[in-house]
Amino acid sequence: MSLSTHLVRRGFDVAHHGMVAATAGPEQPGEGESPQVSPLAALIFLLSGLICVGLLFSVGYTYGHLLPILCMVESPETEAYVPVGTIEPTDPPAYSATPAPKPTNGQPDDLEADTEGDAEVLLVRNKPFTASIRQTILHLRARAGYWSRFRGLSMFVVWNIICGVLISIIATIFPNRLGVAFAAIVAETALATWHMAWVHIVISEPSEKRWYKRIPSIRTWPKIAPAVALWATTHQVVSILPMLVCGSFGSLKHMDNPHYQPGRKDLYAVGGQGFLGFSLMVALFVLLQIPATVTLVRVAASMLPEEDETIVPFDRTFGGKTTPAIIGGQGKIGLVEAWRSFPWASRKRLLRLMVKVTLIFLACWLLATIVLVAEAHILFGDKLGEMMKTLHGIARAHH
């Protein structure tokens, strides 16, 4: 759901080649025998890698999925007249206060009937919880406990496993990258009600219902499927298009050629193409992925069951643009209105959150890289170069 998600996906692609290499046989044609390393050293390095993957996944799930979704549904600002004595001071204040207005035209002001003056009643404007990452985490912990940062994880895992199986089955018809993308769109759309149920779990107060009981009936599939199909399509465009563009020219076009001998100038070219690909991915993410994700989340939120309360302030009517199904309405918001009803203040808040999350994830990624590189030098020593050559040959053979 976020830019860090695409970065995680790139990292998992690299990790996949590493696992393939680790499970391959000791000898590959043309590569010679694999270097012999200490089993203890290999075990330590493997455990360190698993810990780093777990760290990156937890950061990506909490900060890259949960927080942006809450930001997409939270109302920009709430207002209320509150007696001064009930407000607990904080530093910095979590609200902005304005003295209550004086009565006009000689009409009595009920808000001030029990107070001694204007200073006793304040108009409190509560800032959104998602304006601050720390405030959001503290709010979730207060309402749903410490492990609320992983709320919906069980369903997320099962849903993605089933989706992965469907993608593998459908992709056998078109065994190429575009075929996999098409299979992903079809699988995600088929499981649209699962996606909606996961969004409901994330945005609602804790419930005693098991996650599989919160999956809506198949009759709701036509209502949510268009939003999921739009999201899945943009997700694949952001993932594939930068690679196709950058891999169609220059040095990257020849990387699969075993006879290609790159020089120093090719190193600079690869760096430039990599920067171009990253810039294109960011641009597509902002212009396509964010609007599609906001649309999906808000359409799903509009169909939240009446008995479920949201964990952050949320206007179920979207400013009067929806009519509940109980009184004859559709009970959902349209795709266009879902995006249009997302105010500019919330869009700016979401972009700031995305930037913060990306920086946090990149910092964790850099830390994990430094740790693993240092361990590799310490544990494998002089055999590290031979291992890198072997891994490159195996990965190219399985590409």
Account of the protein in words:
The strands form 2 sheets. The chain has a 3-stranded antiparallel β-sheet with strand order 3-5-4, with no helix packed on it. It has a two-stranded antiparallel sheet with strand order 1-2. The two termini are 27 Å apart. With 399 residues, the protein is mainly alpha-helical. Helix 1 runs antiparallel to helix 2, helix 1 packs across helix 11 and helix 6 packs across helix 7 (221-246). Residues 14-32 and 106-119 have low confidence and may be disordered. It is globular. It has a domain at 78-126. The protein has 11 helices and 5 strands. It has helices at 3-23, 39-73, 133-144, 153-171, 177-190, 192-203, 221-246, 264-302, 335-340, 344-380, 384-397; strands at 27-28, 32-33, 78-83, 95-99, 121-126. A hairpin with a 3-residue loop joins strand 1 (27-28) and strand 2 (32-33). Helices cover 59% and strands 5% of the residues. This is Ubiquitin carrier protein. The chain crosses the membrane at residues 40-63, 153-174, 180-203, 224-250, 270-288, 357-380. Residues 92-113 are annotated as: Disordered. Keywords: Membrane, Transmembrane, Transmembrane helix.
